[in-house]
Amino acid sequence: MADDLFEGLPPPSSNTHYQQSQSQSQQPIPSVSTINNTESSAIPSAPKPILKSALKRPNPTQSDTQEAAPKKSLKFKTSTDASEAQVIEAMQKISSHIKNPAKFSKAAKLAIQLIEAGSVKSGVSDYFFAILEAAMSSPIPCTDPSVRADYHSLLSAAQNTKEHLNKKQKNQLAAWTINAVVANDLFTDDSFVFSKAAGQIKEAISNLPVATKEDDTEEAMSLEDRKVMVDEGGQTLPTNENNGVEEADPFGLDALIPESTKKGEKYKEKNDPAMTIRKEDEEETKRFLKLQRKALIICLEIAARRYKTPWCQTVIDILVKHAFDNVARFTAHQRDAVEKLWASIREQQMRRKQGKSVTGKLDVNAFEWLQQKYATEKISIRHSVGASGDRRATQWLG
């Protein structure tokens, strides 16, 4: 017999794929009833998808994000599509609540959101300004520690609305900014912020005009305790020292002036637009200067109260000295206040220099220490080229 042809080949069991295909091909074709009965068991289930890494995962679909997101979420809008009527209604509600100290913080934050959303425009600027008026008329002052940060944030954000305000409102906002922003910066523990606020006060003082006798007279009249009588129409009428109404013409000079002349002057004033505008501008300028001077005096008093803080002393020395040097820019009553502040600062300076600190050295600030040091220091022009006056560097330079 011939040699076995399959000698040396691997056994048939190792080629399982070939055997399975052969066995499947030799099986009889099932009938229709057999297929129907075994359809559910014959069709294999779809394989489970392989999880990919988060970096290779495609963008989630909208259904996936809806399932993953929580049912309740708090969202803050940075812009709003509200109508002008809705904005006005919101501003009126804020104005009514911002006067209440308990609701001031929340109302101020809502007002800031309106500013950031761009809802403050020329058409609703008066309603927004009413919010600021109500806030500044609160019984709690804007420098109170409980509301200091909210006032600072509100008035700082209000600077972005100046383009929509008229001249009178801009001046009022500038005065409020000194009270609520600059004055509150003087309470900071940051030396840079404190110095910046002091610089703003110095600049504002330098920009003030010199006070006139008319300013002093108006101030004296406002400070004078005068009795007031209210007429039936609800108007207040100033009274004289004899508890009577001030006469319009106490010396009878109106009888000597022709009636036609007086009527002509009144008619000219009423019908001259340029004269009316000029008079209104003058009155507005006086009003703004009065508010500005008052706010600056408040800032000086706040700064002086912080003189016990060592790192504030040099800045306060310079600030109050600057106000004293420009004392003519304030009214008579304010000049007295500035002079008293400067006298108090000078007294505390002398007390520090005479007293002893814990280390036994003179209790002076950094500026005074450097001033004393270099007052007796001998500085040579050759110090940089020769330490002890020798001529080695001179000889080297030739």
Structural commentary:
This protein is an all-alpha fold. Among the domains are: 102 residues; 98 residues. Helix content is 56%, strand content 2%. It has a two-stranded antiparallel ribbon with strand order 1-2. Strand 1 and strand 2 form a beta hairpin. Helix 10 runs antiparallel to helix 13 and helix 13 runs parallel beside helix 15. The longest helix has 33 residues. The C terminus is likely disordered.
| Shape verdict | flat
The main pleated sheet reads as: 2 strands, antiparallel
Order of helices and strands: HHHHHHHHHHHEEHHHHHH
Distance between the termini: 122 Å
In spatial order, strands of the major sheet run 1-2
Number of beta-strand segments: 2
Instruction: State the secondary-structure class.
Output: mainly alpha
